[in-house]
Amino acid sequence: MTAAAPAVTLPFPRRPKYGDSEITAVTELLRSGSLSEIGCGPASRGLEDAFRELIGTTYGLSFNSGTASLHAALHAVESATGASLNAGVAMSPMTWISAITAAFHAGSFPVFADMAPGSPNLDPAAAEATGCSAILATHAWGIPARMDEFARFQSAVIEDCSHAHGALYQGRPVGSWGIAGCFSLQESKAVSAGEGGVLTTSDRGIYEAAMTVGHHPIRLAAELTDPGLLPLAAAAASYKYRIPALSAVIATEQLRTLPERMKASQENLAHLTDLISAHDLPLQPVPLPDGSVRGWYGMPFTLLEPVTAPDDLAVACKRAGLPVRPLYRDWMSTPLLQQPALIDRYWPHMRARWNPPDARDFPNYQHFRNQTLVLKIPDVAAPRYIEQVAAALTITSKPF
Ligand SMILES: *Cc1c(COP(=O)(O)O)cnc(C)c1O
């Protein structure tokens, strides 16, 4: 090698994760002397209202994690619609592990279906073919799943919007298409509460049933109308999933800056995409469905040359200083899903019932795993940085 290979030398451009308005909101709350809202106090109400407005649903319901909101949504589907989860919950393996284990929490289990070719998301036809009455559709890396295709099925569809705050599919917010939308507010997500979650729905039955999973009897007494659920208001029997008020006010402030952060991310991505095509680099952005606005959790690019040595590629990316967000590991091969003794210990309802999945049954998933590079895109204007990234991406022209 003669000249030094181009590398990213600038630091990743970022704004402070929490700005003055978050600090002010937290300080005011501390001064108020009240950090726990056992009913629906102003902090949780503020967050829920902000989500209702953003997503355009009738209800927003806060939780202390995205996982808790998924558990509550799955429970609510069974409790409020009468759909049975006995045949499992259809989902893509390309998601976070707790979106998978949430099916176990809800007394059911995951049934994996393959991804749609050329997409980071669950294939609607493959999901339907599982015969499950409930489908969990993740908008992976902020690319909206094709919700109109899911809507044609009988099955209840729950959207996992944890990568897709503010995203639109066919002009309509994700989280408003399915019977429920679930948003993680964990710190790596585009809207952070530190830890937290929100469920969105326009279905009163889903809202009430989800509330019984983890909210305080005082809130249940104030809001439940379903006579079948009202006894729970006397002493809720379920879990404790309330969001801390501090987390709620932080996430509410984060929502205010979401549009400008999305805009800057979009401009950086457009710049990077232009440079990739100008230099004819062998990778292309995973396409957005028409009429979509994407959310942000890194950006997946498809590598056009076959990758046979993914570990070498990862090393080369690191050496080049590229802002790579690693793919999720293959959860299907994780001991938690492979070892019957672990399954039995954590989810006794699965005793002698669980068939460990085999990743070889999911060719589109395998292809995506091998051929995808997820890059973090700055959410502040960063033209110089993007130019360095594009230059360093020339490494992808070598075979790996
Ligand atoms: C982060 C995440 C979750 C879980 O959210 P927590 O708030 O960490 O419980 C679920 N699904 C996806 C796709 C996620 O990225």
How would you sum up this structure, described in words?
The chain contains 15 helices and 12 strands. The protein is α/β, with parallel strands linked by helices. It has 2 domains: 20-254, Type I PLP-dependent aspartate aminotransferase-like (Major domain) (Aspartate Aminotransferase, domain 2); 258-397, Aspartate Aminotransferase, domain 1, CATH 3.90.1150. Helix 6 (147-151) links the parallel strand 4 and strand 5. The strands form 3 sheets. Strands 1-9-8-5-4-2-3 form a 7-stranded mixed sheet, with helices on both faces. A 3-stranded antiparallel sheet has the order 10-11-12. Strands 6-7 form a two-stranded antiparallel sheet. Helix 3 runs parallel beside helix 4 (97-105) and helix 10 crosses helix 15. It is globular, with a radius of gyration of 22 Å. The chain is 39% helix and 12% strand. The chain has helices at residues 20-32, 42-55, 66-81, 97-105, 124-129, 147-151, 204-212, 217-223, 231-234, 245-278, 310-319, 335-338, 340-346, 363-371, 383-392, and strands at residues 59-63, 89-91, 110-112, 134-138, 156-160, 168-169, 172-173, 180-184, 197-201, 283-285, 299-303, 372-375. The structure holds pyridoxal-5'-phosphate. Pyridoxal-5'-phosphate is lined by residues 65-67, 95-96, 98-99, 138, 160, 162-163, 184, 186, 197.
